[in-house]
Amino acid sequence: MKFYGTELSSRLMLGTAQYDSPAILADAVKAAQAGVVTVSLRRESAGAQAGQAFWSLIQSLDVPVLPNTAGCHGVREAVTTAQMARDVFDTNWIKLEVIGQGDLLQPDVFGLVEATRILTEDGFQVFPYTTEDLVVAERLLRAGAEVLMPWGAPIGSGRGLNNLFGLRALRGHFPDVPMVVDAGIGKPSHATAAFELGFDAVLINTAVAKAGDPAQMAKAFRLACEAGLAGYAADPMEERDMAVPSTPTLGLARGLGGETL
Amino acid sequence: MQITVNDELKEVHARTLGAILDELGYGKTRVATALNGFFVPATQRSLKTVDEGAVLEILAPMQGG
Fold first, then answer.
1. Which residue of B6, B26, B59 is in closest CB contact with A84?
2. Contact between A49 and A261 (Cβ < 8 Å)
3. Among A88, A120, A242, A250, which residue's CB has the most CB atoms within a 10 Å radius?
4. Are A35 and A11 in contact (CB under 8 A)?
C-alpha cells in the first residue's frame, strides 16, 4: 500500500497523544509496529524542552510522521498550521483537520475542500479527515487529495464504525483511492471490521493510549489489522438470511430417534 | 519594543525574527513561526523585520492524534 508514492511498512497508523509517559508511547509504537505516527504542533515557551524531547523520541522510533492540523476551525488557520508543520517536521504530508462542530469534532467539509485545494497547490500531500459522504469525497479528490481519511465515529468516542453502509458505499465508489479509517475506533474488532470492508489502513490513538495496558492493546490492534486484511484478501462468503447446513445432508441416517418408521 | 509572543507581552530589542528568537532563548530549538498570522519559514527569519506591537506565534513539536 502506497500513500503518495511511499510504501508503508504496516497498515496500522498510531497517534502519539494521551500516553502517560514517553516510555509508554515508545513501547506502544514498537508493539504496534506502526507504519506511521501522527504528530502535532503546540506553543512552547523558551527554555521548555518538552517539544524537543518529544521530537527526539519520535526520531529514535524511525517511523514516518504524519503531522496534523488538529484543533483548527478555519481554512486559514489550518493552512498556516500545515505550513508551520512542514517547516518543523520536514514533510509534505499533512493530516488535514478543519473542525466545524465542537461537540462531535465533525469536519467542516466545505472548509476541508478549500484547504485541500490551497495546500495541494502549495505542494502538500494532503490526508483529509472527512466524513463518509461520497460527494465530499469526490470534491476532495478533485481538489488534489490522493488519500482520504473517513471517520469511523467521532474522535475519541470509541464507537467503532458508525455508518457501515456509508463506509461500504464510499469504499465501493472509489475502489482505487487509498483510504484510512480515522477516528472512533475503540476496539481491535473495529479495526478488523474496517479492513473487512476493504479499507487500506486505520489510524488509532485513544484506544491504545487509554487502554489499561497500551503496549498490549497496540499488539492486539496489530493482530486485528492483520486478521482483517487477510480476511478481506481471502474473499469472504456472502451473508445469507436463512440457515444452510454446513454438514452434508445426503446419506443422513434416519430413524435413530426411536420413532416408528 | 513590545510584542506579543504566544499571547504574552514581551519586551525585545532585536528587530528581525531570527534575532528575536535568539533573544528570547529559543536558540536552535526546532520551532515554527508565524508573524501577525502569517507563516514565516525558518529560512526567512533572519530577513524578516518585526515591528512594535507584532504578534508572534512560536510552535514546537507535540504529541498528536
1. B59
2. no
3. A88
4. yes
